[in-house]
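Page header: ASSEMBLY MODEL / two components / 732 residues total.
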Amino acid sequence: MKISSFWRYLTIATLLGMLGVGVLVQIARIQTDPEIKELIGRSSIVVRYYYPPRGEIYDRYGRLLAGNTTVYEVSVSLEDVGDDPSDIAMAAQVYLGQDYTAVMELLLNPPDGVRYLRLADYVSSEQAALLMKMQEELDASPDGNPLAALAFRAHLGRQYPEDDLASNLLGFVTHDEYGYFGVEAKYNNLLSGIPVTLLVPTDPRRAVELPEIPPGDSIILTIDRELQAAVEVILEQALYETGAESGTIIVMDPRTGEILTLATTPTMNLNDFSQVGEIFPGETPFNRAISQAYEPGSVFKILTMAAALDNGTVQPGTIFLDDGVFQYGGEYINNWDGGAWGYQDMTGCLAHSLNVCLAWVATEMGSDAFYSYMQRFGIGHLTGIDLASEMTGRLKLPGDSDWYPIDLATNAFGQGVSVTPMQMVMAASALANDGQMVYPHVLYATVQDGRQHTMATQVVGNPVSMNTARTISEMLAIALETEASRGLVPGYRVAGKTGTAQVPTPYGYYDPELTNASFIGWGPVDDPQFLVYVWLEKPRSSPWGSVVAAPVFRQVVEKLVVLQGIPPDAVRAQLAGR
Amino acid sequence: MNKMENITHIVQKVKQAPWRVQLQWVGLLLLGLVLIAMIAGIYINVTARAAISGRQIQLLTGAIDSNKQINADLETELASLTASEAMAARAEDLGFHPAATDEITYVAVAGYTDQAPVDLSSPEAGVRTTLLQPEYSETLFDWFTRQMTSAGDE
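Prediction written out in full:
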């Protein structure tokens, strides 16, 4: 080899070697330079917040009552906004309902340190699709896409496919992802799941498996959607026909405490919760069944009579001479019609709803026993139902500063004592369920990680004996039949009691015209499978529970026996005999 | 000079030729460069494949989220289409009406049980599968350790 060739080779080799060494040095520098490391570290790890999808809500047969749907957060990438953001502001006004001037102001003078400016959240898929389509179409614009800075992030938002069905029971979720009222509030923690914060590398070489974020638990309610819908229609019709201010109907299985239906007014479309302030102005309770206590009137007599029977104060055949007036504690008690009904047994007292008789029964029992029984029935206490915002009524007790002896007599027929409809339902469950009072609840089961956990029936007390419960059921069935009540259901023997209560005014006396009309009943008497409570507030067509509330009870029972598959008594007897 | 001496002399001549020694050094240097280039090439290739795989993982993770959202949308849409009011209207359009108590005939059917509340428990409950295989995340050393460990188990 010539010397010159050698030097050429050596020069090339040296250059290549230096190049290689340079590359290695550069690699080493990139790996070790603190400034570069900081830059890499800052951009390659991002903090992400993962909100698990909210659990779904189903009725007892698996029909979806509350689910989720995709909604969009629409933002603007400020780095990509050109000199003139007017197109973005215009799009925000047209498609997102934003104020043009306000958006322009924000885009021209964004807050310091903000890279993405959120224009709107919970934008529906349809609206977002329109905006995305426009953005896509403008991509071909020769002057550049004026909407290129718009960014869309899809996430899930609450959706109620049944709109206003069972709205008072379900409650709703706002854009802060928090549940308000009903089961949405009561089971918010369960439904919402646990948000997770993760450090996620953006460097694809460092991609790691993200932990699976478990969704919120789904829950199955005890209500039957079809029955709920049917009862809501019945209630709406009843309000229309009677002119009542509001109405409430509760259907419960007295054997388990499962609420099959809870209908009350007013209702609201849960997908548009912004209307809540207008629909429920002022002190209007969201769910009257649990949040509004009222003087129930004569439906309360079933508790007084049950207590007296259980206590041994009276028997069904005990005779009472009703002379139309009962004096007690310096006050006089009259019957609803002001009349005297003569000799009556206890069934007659219930059939004719005699205040005088029931006041006598309570005073014969004595205040200690009477109030002890009422407390055992849960009067004056929360039922503990699994719905948010339950209120308790008021049961004045001897020793309270505002209790007077006359209260014993008036409480006997449901005046001077206040209860919520749900309290009455729970108390009556003891009479319909062989003396066992059950915990009313709307949660049938929870579903977590694919496992279903079903609620067990809870007996919260035995205020009266089984014998007493069966006796009072029989008496109430006879009472309805004696009176040829409008609450009677052809083919089904039911026990029930009407109630017509005067409405107290803020001035301390009762309104001379307004009433609360109620009806409570259960059946079939030989094997109670349903308990129905009807309350119509201040009806106008007639003040009497027997006229306005009893027919509603019958309509509800006629509907529920079909939907629940409860055959008429004769058919059941036939089937039992096989 | 015998034959053996001649050979030794030629070998010595060749061996001692300066350009041959220098050529050997240059060759060695170039061989080193080739090796470095090969290692660098392999490194780039592996890194690129890891990056592509990682990117695919990110895309698939996004696709999973997207599918979950689509599932939720479809479930809710189905519920809306079969909502109580909608179904009642469809039934009415088809000429049906809600049955009244006197329109129902009850027939005893042996073995029939009433409609029971729903059971939404899943057969796959509690089964947790790992999305990423270890090959996507482990180092060469991890792989070697795993192979050694698993070989010991087998």
